[in-house]
Design a protein that fits this description.
single chain, alpha+beta, eight-stranded antiparallel sheet, six-stranded mixed sheet, globular, disordered N terminus, disordered C terminus
Amino acid sequence: MTSTTEQLSATTLLRFATAGSVDDGKSTLVGRLLHDSKSVLEDQLEAVERVSADRGQDAPDLALLTDGLRAEREQGITIDVAYRYFATARRRFILADTPGHVQYTRNMVTGASTADLAVVLVDARNGVIEQTRRHAAVAALLRVPHVVLAVNKMDLVGYEEAVFAKIAEEFTSYASELGVPEITAIPISALAGDNVVEPSANMDWYGGPTVLEHLETVPVSHDLTACPARFPVQYVIRPQTAEHPDYRGYAGQIASGVLRVGEPVTVLPSGRTSVIEGIDALGEPVDIAWAPQSVTVRLKDDIDISRGDLIAPTASAPATTQDVVATVCHVADQPLAVGARVLLKHTTRTVKAIVKEIPSRLTLDDLSQHPNPGQLVANDIGRVVVRTAEPLALDAYADSRRTGSFLLIDPADGTTLAAGMAGESFASKAEAVQADEEGWDF
């Protein structure tokens, strides 16, 4: 007889994030998903029922299952990203419930940065608004491969098909312009449970999947081995013991691709070359290792390597640059201005840098670019040119979400200023079609 643990280990993992404007019902949707999929412990449900009754509510407020901060409960809003873990017989899930307020868009960036899928909620009464466009733009910038448009509160518009169709058409057109590879629209009522876990009896005109059915069946590719190998060095191991007098290993997590013993490699940014002499995984020598394994790599030549260096196969080594052109989501309260001195953190490497240019800021209403804004303020999305003090081995974000991303940090107090994505801002429609067919690099 197969154990529950064995069943779960055989299922795939889906990371997804919820987003939407204030009061669109994100936390209620998440609570409904957890409740109706039997993923809520009895004492948790009892606590929610007790608090709801104290407030004079007839039914349990399922939003309380995710809104954990006291301020969130008091104001009835989501402030920080709430992570929840649950599973069905078909798949395991890591869910990031992100805030809807404009001033918390930075939190949405955090929650969606590792997501395979984003659920964007829209209030059926309000339709697509600016914050909806903002969240669609962030999902596109972060190259989230699947987007679900959940048109919520259909019960408040009489479950009218025409209302859903109009919103779905407007959002799909906008997201397609951004290059989002796959968009699925689902009409729901999170409060009543329509089309969340169980099909709705009130919308017989809709023949598509429920939210949970789509989450369980959407194709997810976590194959990092198809990409060129990238190994950021975290730590240099030199035991210098009687048993290992000459051992020199470079420890870290393989960000992408496959490493093999005997393979010629280049160490960046120095450009020195060598050959992989050995790979140790969990203390044992192996001939091959792949992402996202944590290993120790040994090279034939004695090269000066330290934390922050990148080891890559010589045949597919990335070019180094000191001029980083990228799109950033500004996440700090203080503005990011031309001339600002910052730290740029890329994988395990942190270097000094200066913001040379801010060529444009994105206007979300029509996706136009506002030229030369001079600075970016909290929640702005814009293009930047950053000059680094030392060369970086940076991939395009379109090629690798792991080695194409970076952070800009305030050197004075360590505050994260912006999350950056190297290369082009949005995928073209042609790239979106190809990505939909082939899957994306995570």
